Structures are given as C-alpha cells and as structure tokens.
Amino acid sequence: MKTRIIVLLVLVLSSTLHAQTLLGDQAEGEAILATMKDFSRALVAGDGAAIAKMYTNDARLFPVDRKILSGQELVQYWAPENVTGVTSHQFFPEEINVMGDTAYDFGYYSGTSTNDAGEVVTWKGKYVVVWKKTPAGWKMYLDSWNRVVDE
C-alpha cells in the first residue's frame, strides 16, 4: 500500500511539472524566469512601454512574417495600441542556460486574446531568446517566435 501511494505521488508530481532545465547559475536562471513572468503580466495588461523596457538598447526582434526590428521599430511594435486584447499569456521554457552575463532560453508559449468580434482566440507557439545581463537586470537581446499549429 505504501509503495502504491509513493508511485501515485510521483506520477501526479511528474505530470504537473513542466520539463525545464536550468543550466549555469541557478539564481540567475530564476531571475530570468521572473522577468518572463513580468513580460506575461505586462502583455496581458497591455503595457507596451513596460515590455519595451525589457529589451537591451541594441536588441533585435524577429516577429512572425516581418523583417528584423530594432530601436524605435521595436518600441513601436510593443506600443499600447498593438498589445491590447491579450487575456492570458504564459511561457513554458524547455531550457535556460546562463553563461556569465549572457544566457539563452527556448521553449513554448500559449495564450488567449479577444478578437474584434469579441470571440476568445487561443494560440501557442515556440520561441528562443538570447539574454544579456545589464545593471538593471536581465534583458532580452534577441527575441524570436512563431506560432505552432496542431498537426
């Protein structure tokens, strides 16, 4: 009976935890995770200014079906009028690798938004981010993503 409870507990825990590997400095990896959560909160709040501040001054953005954006183009991409309607957003990092003042992470994201007709739309995709540690904390230097369609 005791073995059965332990096996059940292990199965429940392993099915609720998302596979994630933190390589390098664990505290720095946790700081990056915290910034990712801040990004999701700002996106849902429609706070494009807060999102733009999460990038380095020399950052590059690789949005779907668009050219590489930088500088003021990046700020405009996250302008408040462009980030409205998102009702939920979450990252599911597969790996975060911290190497000194540089890190990368990749994984999946998902979210929901409300379209112009008032309908809830669910979406998901994959991403990769290169991070740089700055005096203000970890910021995104290269940010690329695209949607994933169920096959």
UniProtKB/TrEMBL annotation:
Presence of the UniProt keyword Signal in the record: yes
Domain named DUF4440: residues: 32-140
Keywords, in A-Z order: Signal
Transmembrane parts of this sequence: none
Signal sequence bounds: 1-19
Alphabetical list of Pfam families matching this protein: DUF4440
Domain of life: Bacteria
Coiled coil: none
This protein's record includes keyword Iron-sulfur: no
Protein name: DUF4440 domain-containing protein
Organism ancestry: Bacteria, Pseudomonadati, Bacteroidota, Flavobacteriia, Flavobacteriales
